[in-house]
Amino acid sequence: MGVWLVELPSRGRWNGCVWDGAQQSVPEEWQRFSPELALGERWARGGNSFEQSLNDSAGNPVVGPLLGMKRAVWAPIEGDGDREGILMAAWRAGPQALPRAEAESVAADLALALGYQRLEFAAREQARDLAFARQILSEGRGAVNGPEQLRRIVSAGAEQAGVGFICVGHVQNSGKALPAWCGPSPEWAAHLDSGPLAELWRRALITGQMTGCEHPAALPAEGFVRWAALPVRRAGNVLGVLVAGLRPQGCTLATLEGLELRAALAADFLAEWTTEEQKAQYGLEERERVEASPAALVLLDESNAIAAASPSARQLLAAAATGTAIPSFTGLLRNTHAASSWLAAARSGSDTRLFEAELLAGKRIRARTLFQGHGSGGLLLEVTAVETPAGPLRPSERELRALVDWMEQGVVIFGAQRRIAAINRRFSELTGLPYEDVRALASLDELLERFSAVAENPEEAAQHWRELVEHEQGAVREEVRLAKPVARVLERAGRPIQDDSGARTGWLEIYRDVQAGRMFQTRWLQTEKLAGIGQMVSGIAHELSSPLTSILGYTHLLRRGKDGAREEVEMIHREAERAHRMLRQLLESGRETAPQRKAVSVNHLVQRAMELRALGKASHRICVEVDLDPAAPLVEGDEDQILQVVTNLIANAEQAMEASGSFAGTIRVSTRLSEGGGVRLEVADDGPGIPPALMQRIFEPFFTTKPAGVGTGLGLAIVMEIARAHGGQVHAANRSEGGAVFTVELPGTKKAFGSPLMARPAKDPAPASARPALPAVKGRALVVEDEPTVARLIADV
Question: CB-based burial of residue 734 (10 Å sphere; 0-12 exposed, 13-18 middle, 19+ buried)?
Fold first, then answer.
């Protein structure tokens, strides 16, 4: 038995305990568990408990705790709609009925215990937060100055469970200037002023709501998994923002409630911190921070004059020296009018795109707004130079290209100036372009020249592709149509590549073939259509049943008469019986019933399958030989499902023989007593056999070598699923004399043995003279029947 609980959701592995009744200690490695890897699709489909048979190790990957086990039951531990763990119980010689309900009950108890633990922890956190809030409010704003109180709030927030970093930024003029941070360590100040964290708190200010993001990979790890930003407001005015880095341990809903409480406390003190002296100090600090930044940053005032610039920005803008003032940002650009219009739109928040411009010195730059809005703080810009083509590949670039070439999707990565940074072999396979030619391409223009030979609309496709690579700022997902070498539709997913500061440095595209998905949809529609036709045929067969009943009844009465047409009446009766038998088989096969396990005879089901084959359009030139073992035991299973196994195997053999051009051949269906006391069903044919390259894929769903309209690719997959559900196995092999043979082994039931085919002597009826005479009774009989002819027949009889 094992129980594993979630501790670090981001790591994908759970920790727990394992008990083994046969040994006192178990390996420590068993305490760590990954349900996605161990359980696969069963875990992904939902949170219901399920049973697992471990007889087939190939179909059921065996994890460490299941070594030597035969059967297992799994029950998820769920709380508040999330999976918090899983419980497993396994047996070396399992009982016939696993205690699935008991496992679910224990899992539910564990979920309740975990929920109570969370509530208890949250209550302690809330009590501590309320005590801190009472202390701060009881002291009053006049006792301690605003900055000192903010530092106390930040320090207390850092002691919260699940919080690893917290700071409060004071934003003047309703959030239209760079904040003055209270609490961050010096190494984190630059990360808050630019990059993903800057975008995070700006979204919180703009939307007025709490925002969050995963920990950026470009920032130091330090155990953070997520960041949160809360706007600090009072009376509808934005006074600042609270930013917190969250750790996985102990981070709960109570953690976020504690952050909201601290944001409310901070708002009370930020409202008082608005003196002219503080404003002046604020502006001075911001200029000093910009001028000390390693990034290329400039700070603009309302007239677009540069109020401050970092050394790298001054060098980029061709300043004479670090202390030299640059009067106007737009005055340094060739497209001054376009830059002024973009800055005006950026201030109002209506345009947040990257802006490309050319300096008077000839160098091209890209600029983006770090914050939009009016105010004395002006507009903060980040200016980055466009990368130049790289020289020889660095080791990291070679590793990237090797990784991209390994992917199953087509991948194209563009760097600066539309140059191709990486392109893989799968892209050449999807587009039909030779890989040796593709890998030699260096730019988008060269790729477009080759792509025009296979595209459906070369000029339109080329123009659209250039716009995506050069100007698209968001993710796109669209279709790309090819005309050569065959008509094909590809799906292209593209998105920009950005550096740590958010500046665009390239473009990534991933391609995949969508033909398979559309083929699945087509086959699904065809299946739905066949299902509708089946329902209609079933209804027609039901309606024909009544007149056939009347014909059978009256021919039976005529056979008892003295007429001379006795032979003709016998012929009508036999044909009516044959038609009635065919309709009964059709109705029984088409009836939708819930799976019912009972003792059934495989021999009897083979005979039913042969009767169904006679009703269909099976080729009568293909002979089916039946060899049934009378001593074959009964099996415990669903009659309709096992019948479907037999019919699918026979139909598969017929289709394989006809597809190879052999419309005359032999299919042999036999049953035998297996070594384990079960039933072995074999369906062998003398057709073309199974190609060795396809032997491992024939049981995959929707895999078929038949032409369109002949098969769906589900027949053998359904056979495998039904056989495994009944505790059996299916094997396929090629016969040495030619053809293929499919073997289905099903375990026998211990309830009863024997076969319906075994003859049983009938008991002779008693002679008429020995029967007791029935008393004569006079009276009337009322016949109620909705079919008039059947009612008349009953009355006549």
Answer: middle
Which residues share a beta bridge with 366?
Answer: 356, 384
By the 8 A CB rule, do 283 and 377 touch?
yes
Backbone φ, ψ for residue 97 (5° rounding): -120, 115
Quick one: pLDDT at residue 406?
79
Instruction: Give the tens place of pLDDT for each residue, 22-51.
Output: 877 888 888 888 877 777 777 766 678 888
CA distance 295 to 273: 30
Query: Are 383 and 298 a contacting pair, CB within 8 Å?
Result: yes
- Measured over the CA atoms of residue 666, residue 671, residue 675 and residue 678, the dihedral's sign is positive
Contacts (Cβ under 8 Å, ≥6 apart) of 130: 261
Highest mean pLDDT: which of 314-328, 417-431, 731-745?
731-745
Q: Which of 668, 642, 643 is nearest to 654 (CA)?
A: 668
SS3 196: helix
DSSP-derived letter for residue 390 is: P
Torsion of CA 101, 107, 109, 115, to 10 degrees: -150
The total of other beta-carbon atoms located within 10 Å of residue 32's CB is: 14
Query: What letter represents residue 231's amino acid?
Result: P
Cross-strand bridge partners of residue 5: 15, 85
Contact 122, 253 (CB under 8 A): yes
Q: What is the pLDDT of residues 136-151, one digit of tens each?
A: 777 665 445 556 667 7
Q: CA-to-CA distance for 135 and 129, rounded, in angstroms? A: 10
Whether residue 432 contacts residue 484, with contact meaning beta carbons closer than 8 Å, is answered with yes
CA dist 440 → 419, 425, 492, 669 (Å): 12, 12, 22, 58
Q: Which residues pair with 684 in a beta bridge?
A: 668, 741
Q: Is 574 helix (H, G, I), strand (E, B) or coil?
A: helix
Structure tokens at 742: 């499919």
**Structural tokens at position 665:** 């051949």
Report H helices in 184-301.
186-193, 196-207, 253-270, 276-292
Which structure tokens are listed for 498?
């950005």
Q: Average pLDDT of 449-474?
A: 86
Mean pLDDT, the chain, rounded, equals 75
Strands 665-673 and 622-627: parallel
Q: How far apart are CA 223 and CA 220, in angstroms?
A: 9
Residue 633 CA: distances (Å) to CA of 677, 684, 783? 8, 21, 45
How buried is 260 (Cβ within 10 angstroms: 0-12 exposed, 13-18 middle, 19+ buried)?
middle
* Among 273, 295, 277, CA closest to 189: 295
* Per-residue three-class SS string for 613-656: HHHCCCCCCEEEEEECCCCCCCEEEEHHHHHHHHHHHHHHHHHH
